[in-house]
Amino acid sequence: EAQVTQNPRYLITVTGKKLTVTCSQNMNHEYMSWYRQDPGLGLRQIYYSMNVEVTDKGDVPEGYKVSRKEKRNFPLILESPSPNQTSLYFCASRRDRSSYNEQFFGPGTRLTVL
Amino acid sequence: AQSVTQPDIHITVSEGASLELRCNYSYGATPYLFWYVQSPGQGLQLLLKYFSGDTLVQGIKGFEAEFKRSQSSFNLRKPSVHWSDAAEYFCAVGAPSSASKIIFGSGTRLSIRP
Questions:
Q1: Which of A43, A65, B2, B27 is 20 to 30 A removed from A99 (C-alpha atoms)?
Q2: Domains plus CATH for chain B?
Q3: pLDDT tens column, A3-53
Q4: What angle (nearest 5°) sits at the alpha carbon of residue B110, between those of residues B48 and B75?
Q5: Does B1 touch chain A (CB under 8 A)?
Q6: How far away is chain A from the Cα of B8, in angstroms, using its nearest Cα?
Q7: B11/A contact by beta carbon, under 8 A
């Protein structure tokens, strides 16, 4: 089954404790991205990657890092989480950089930073 | 720069009634337009998309949307809603010129009255 998976689905942590949210897709997609969803703000893009070793900032990249060492994986790293990063996070992938192509979303990771 | 506005934060309709969710976009040319649905606890699923051609687009789950260039709108409609349609709906716009970026609206939450 074609899918985007994220882990963990739920995470409660404390300020400053480094964490990684994993994202993996099995569709051989070139383009992957991370979004955060906050009430009243919709989805905002954090980072995106057009292919292996090619990443770039989205609209709200502060406090986040990503890497793309393999085509299928695109982890989101919070080196020193803060309470304002409490949010619902989605990973997404599509065939290539063209927004013409359908974007597939993971189930989401709900992060709480205390 | 492209943007998208969903003026209705929350809408309640009776089961069996018709539905129209509003979406207005800002972009200098004809953008790519999308509607996504997010069921509780789930990721986003593409309902339908418009790129060019026929301005009335059919999607999954009985939804349709109409592109109106003169009004910069892409409203989502369904003739008869079912309780399972209760979800959050996001309109999104992609720019053919920049290729990769998709901007999401803030979402409209749909509740169904029995």
A1: A65
A2: 3-113 (2.60.40.10)
A3: 999 999 999 999 999 999 999 999 999 999 999 999 889 999 999 999 999
A4: 40
A5: no
A6: 11
A7: no
